[in-house]
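User: structure tokens for DUF3817 domain-containing protein, please.
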Amino acid sequence: MTTSTAPKTHPERQKRVDTALKIFSVTAWITGMFLIFLVIRMIMQYILKVEIPEWATIVAIAHGWAYMAYVLATLNLGLKARWKPVVWLTTALAGVVPFLSFIIEANRRREVKERFQLA
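Assistant: Done. Predicted tokens:
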């Protein structure tokens, strides 16, 4: 029989961390998707020399807004989970590297759920 040596996290703190984690996960996925669309748009425009309609600039603007929300969600979760600054920084930077936000989100979600005994 294995006994857990980690102290039980207070239910109120679990709830706060869980809410912050959900917001972080959603913003990470939205940011990652907009970044993929932005990269595709840039490849089409600058490498393949495809004529891009003017309204397609919305992709870049949307990624910028989504990234700001992602950074705020990262800070929110980092404060509640008491991350070290290097964890905050690497997590925040994941929103500007294609596909990395998905990988970092999965890793942080697993780490936080384990540390705070979240379901």
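User: Anything notable?

Assistant: Residues 12-115 form one domain.
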